[in-house]
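Z., the sequence and structure:
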Amino acid sequence: MIITNPYQRIVPFILFILALVLLFLLIRPMITILLGSILLSYVSFPLYKRITKKIPNKSLSIILSLFIIFLIVLIPFAFLTFEITQQGVSFYNSLSNNVAKGALFGFGCTDTESQICLILNQAEKFSLDQLSKVGFDKQLKEFLPILENKITNFIISIPMILAGIFLIFIISYFILKDWGKILKKIVNLLPMREKTIKKLIKQFENIAHTVIYAQLFVALVQGIIAIIGFYIFGIPFPIFFGVVVAFCALIPAIGTAIIWMPASFYLILNGYFSYNSGILWNGIGLFLYGLLIISTIDNVLLAKIVHAKSKVNQILVIVGVIGGAALFGIIGIFIGPILLPLLITYFETFKERFV
């Protein structure tokens, strides 16, 4: 039947938009859990396919693959969260005490004839003056109750977090169980040509591979290597600064050197002015370790993991990580860098077809 009445065209469209809005409102409270489930399913799928070759039972293979991912990801994450919280609070207390004592760098440089000593003392005085102008000491004191409140809220919310993790695993189980059916259903529902759908799926695979198995994995490796180096060469709060290195590794304009280089210079200068050759050599060792290992391991790993066609614009990764974390929390660190390039690909496809 040919539709001639314009209202017969508009009403179904309005109802469709209304249904989409209602669907979004329905899943909005669980959007993070759903995205986490999709991400976990995607990460677990290669392992699940390998396990099914040895264990024919589908349900058992899914449970085993999810359990392995749980051991690999969540247990280390829980340990890191605990250590970061402890070391972050200790770092805050140390910084607050140094600012209060007027010894920001803590070199104890008293040689008035040394030009280097004079420059460092002037730099320390200038830094303290600037911090005083912006009320840094006051801000530190105001930040402590906020930090304590955040930690308390986190501890209180642990049961809810565990319930959320349990839901993620349950949903992931059913996604993996009906992976083929779900994918086929999505393809059938999309109002696009088969060629366009295949292009989007291929682009999603490339982006997901690049972001999850390359960008984030390499950043994680650099963070772990940095933690080991900081621990070996005597940098305080090694896990806290190692995690900061991992985040900096995601930002090409900054990179990991912004953390390990000042840390190595701090040890070198501290060892020099305290006449402690051990600290001095630790600083030199950390500098070489950072230059030859921390800052170069990413090039080695990326060359092996990422194909040229799979590379994602670094700006999109940065915006995706920051925006994703702000919108979805920790899960957004993984989801954001995937969604943003995928949306741009979709708009490019839309432009090719309709513009």
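The chain has two domains: 30-94+134-189, 192-355. The chain has a mean pLDDT of 75.

Let me know what you think.
H.
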